[in-house]
Amino acid sequence: MSKATKAFNKVTKLEKDRSNWITWALQEQSNIKELWDALKQDYDAKDPLNKASLQKQLFSLTCTNPAKVGKHLDNLIAIMNELAKHGVTMPDSQFKLAIISSTPGMYQVTIKALVTVYYKAS
């Protein structure tokens, strides 16, 4: 039984004759939130298009404004975290390529130096 089904079973059902309207209308909002979160989790976890879309986004984002590199890196990390939630593990080498290929040219020397230092430390 999925989490969504379990959460849905906790929600009081409205009778066809609406005799339990008050109970139904006043039920805990946390049940509704739990149901929504469970539905979202079930849907996201099973949707291969979502995984593919996240991977495409990771490698298609580019940052052309040097002042926004920090925000850009935060976005890349957020995408990696979403992929991990979906069970997609990506090697560090691919993530580094996504970073290197998507940052402004003026950062390329710095990034290459950081990668070199990383490899020497490994």
> In total, how many domains does the architecture comprise?
2
Per DSSP, the total helix count is: 7
Number of strand segments: 0
Structural class determined from secondary elements: mainly alpha
Structure commentary:
The chain is built from 7 helices and no strands. The chain has 122 residues and is mostly helical. Helix 1 runs antiparallel to helix 3. The longest helix is centred in the N-terminal third of the chain and has 18 residues, at 29-46. It is elongated, with a radius of gyration of 22 Å.
Could you write a compact summary of the structure shown?
By secondary structure, this protein is mainly alpha-helical.
Defining key terms:
single chain, 122 residues, mainly alpha, 2 domains, 7 helices, elongated
What is the secondary structure topology, with strand pairs?
Elements: H1 3-10, H2 21-25, H3 29-46, H4 48-60, H5 69-85, H6 92-102, H7 108-121
